[in-house]
Design a protein that fits this description.
With 300 residues, the protein is an alpha/beta fold. 27% of the residues lie in helices and 22% in strands.
Length: 300
């Protein structure tokens, strides 16, 4: 597949802020918006703070908002207010093939949009949502700006542990395990052959992680990818259990038999380091090191 990268951002460029998933905490959102607005001209609709049950407004509101943002060729990026749940409901209505060459930024439930973009051969940014951005350390904010503005490959990222030795090179795909596993059998799954799979999650008990991972295995995912990068699995412990979530993940990774390193600062933890999905990476599982072989944005 020939991958399309977004155009690079410049200070004061217009960027959209959207809420395609769940309703958000207003103070946390405002803190993130303030950080974003320090560098870019952030715009959003007046009904961004809408709420309908567990969603940030009805599907019609959220799909129209996101579709407009994706089509806008006068803006350079689309940032998401929060994850939660609901973005997968919008996929059939989105102009994925005709989207402007803008950077899409988000994680967690927004994995569904990332995967749908990768299915169209588009690079996107797995990174903080606005309700998280205001709490991120300065190095994460700087890394996000560098990723969005420079066509050069970013510095390598280090994990914490080796689950399965070996090296793997391929296109980085994936995101949240729960959301990614729900896309199996849909047209929104990204190309997996020869890829490196990123997985992270939050508040999922170990048996549920096992169940979702087993779903991937039975669907043949691990026979197609070359390596596995595990980010944060936050608040995923079973109370009073004699085993940890890491114990379960380590055993699952060994069953898969692919190079696998864990503990990368990606996901729902205190640090959510941005990475570009749809770009080539090299995983050295023995040193728990993820090397980025290209930048996230085009040269111009």
């Amino acid at each position: 597949m020939r991958w399309l990268k977004p155009l690079p951002l410049h200070p004061r460029d217009t960027v959209h802020v959207v809420a395609p998933a769940g309703p958000f905490d207003r103070p946390a959102f405002e803190a993130g918006l303030a950080v974003l607005s320090e560098r870019y001209h952030a715009v959003h609709r007046s009904d961004l703070g809408a709420s309908y049950r567990y969603l940030a407004g009805e599907d019609s509101r959220r799909s129209e908002e996101l579709a407009q943002a994706l089509r806008d060729r006068d803006a350079r990026a689309v940032f998401c207010a929060r994850g939660g749940y609901g973005s997968a409901r919008l996929l059939p209505a989105l102009p994925l093939a005709d989207a402007a060459p803008s950077a899409f930024v988000g994680f967690s439930d927004l994995t569904s949009v990332h995967c749908a973009l990768q299915a169209q051969g588009r690079v996107s940014i797995h990174g903080p949502v606005l309700t998280q951005l205001g709490k991120q350390p300065s190095e994460v904010r700087s890394a996000l700006v560098r990723l969005l503005e420079s066509p050069e490959a970013p510095p390598p990222l280090s994990g914490a542990d080796t689950y399965v030795s070996g090296c793997a090179e391929g296109t980085l795909v994936g995101g949240n395990l729960s959301v990614f596993s729900r896309l199996l059998g849909t047209p929104y799954l990204p190309p997996l052959d020869g890829s490196v799979l990123l997985l992270e999650d939050v508040t999922e008990r170990p048996y549920r992680i096992d169940r979702m991972w087993t779903h991937l295995r039975l669907a043949g995912v691990f026979s197609r990818v070359r390596g596995i990068v595990l980010g944060n699995f936050t608040s995923c412990e079973e109370k009073d259990a004699p085993y940890s979530c890491a114990d379960v993940l380590r055993d699952l990774a060994r069953e898969a038999g692919l190079p696998c390193a864990a503990g990368f600062p990606i996901g729902h933890g205190a640090i959510n380091h941005p990475v570009a999905l749809g770009t080539r990476v090299r995983l050295d599982a023995d040193s728990a090191r993820l090397t980025f072989l290209e930048g996230a944005v085009s040269p111009s």
